């Protein structure tokens, strides 16, 4: 009885050890080298062949003995075998140690309406907003809505456009996209000569500069926002379509309450926004105006009667 129990314990320990060993081998097998990684190579007795070397976008490495040879997709063991065959010219039995760093080194450039344009480098992940912060932040006339990213990949250069203002909104849970090694970020210039007119029940009616992509509420906020008397259910937006003036009535209250911000109309140069008063305020004002006229008429008659007598 005790003999069978001891055999079972040994069998379980053997299976557990076999599982751990196979899991370790599997983990090592899937660890592969990718562009942007930093590979640390140590060759005993040869400091000239030792150091950290970056894997470029084309898969080659900045290592003198492997110039022009792509190593992306190789495992650590694959690279050690390749280095062993190359180093045989200098050492009969080279002692080689290879390690892939945990973080990639990301090199990128920022140009355009930015405080400190130029080239930057960081170890680890960085998103577009963080990259712009590293470059001192956007300039005063920067266009956040049309940030361009030039990205090399598969032999072609992609031209990406992102709207950073979508990520700045308070209700946004999204993070700006990550910067990849070799990216070129361009912040375009924002035109400042585009005006629209805001009338009616806002705190500061008048002419306002409209940025490319501004919607109806963006402009109303620039005018100080709606007053207490404003009728947010019947905001009038007058715009030009194919040379013809078009008048639209927008229920801003409903769009905001339902979270349909994307349905707010986009504002263009020359548009007119009219925020009317609520009906009850108009009725009160009409009642006051009528009584004012009655009082004025009665006062005039009284004064005239006193003058004649």
Q: Overall 3D geometry?
A: rod-shaped
Q: What is the arithmetic mean of pLDDT?
A: 80
Q: Uncertain spans, ≥5 residues at pLDDT below 50?
A: 21-29
Alpha carbon gap, first and last residue: 136 Å
Number of helices: 7
What share of residues are in beta strands? Answer: 15-25%
CATH topology heading of the largest domain: Outer membrane lipoprotein wza fold like
Order of helices and strands: HEEHEEEHEEHEEEHEEHEH
Give me the CATH superfamily of the largest domain: Outer membrane lipoprotein wza domain like
Number of domains: 3
Helix content: 25-40%
**DSSP E strands, number:** 13
Order of strands in the sheet with most strands: 5-4-8-6-7
What does this structure look like?
The chain has 7 helices and 13 strands. With 309 residues, the chain is α+β, with helices and mostly antiparallel strands. The chain has 3 domains: 31-100, wza like fold, CATH 3.30.1950; 105-187, Outer membrane lipoprotein wza fold like (Roll), CATH 3.10.560; 195-277, Outer membrane lipoprotein wza fold like. The chain has helices spanning 2-30, 76-87, 128-134, 165-168, 216-222, 252-257, 279-308, and strands spanning 38-43, 51-54, 96-100, 105-112, 118-123, 147-153, 156-162, 184-187, 195-200, 206-209, 235-241, 244-250, 272-275. The model is unreliable at 21-29 (pLDDT under 50). 31% of the residues lie in helices and 24% in strands. The strands form 3 sheets. Strands 5-4-8-6-7 form a 5-stranded mixed beta sheet, with helices on one face. A 5-stranded mixed beta sheet has the order 10-9-13-11-12, covered by helices on one side. A hairpin with a 2-residue loop joins β11 and β12 (244-250).
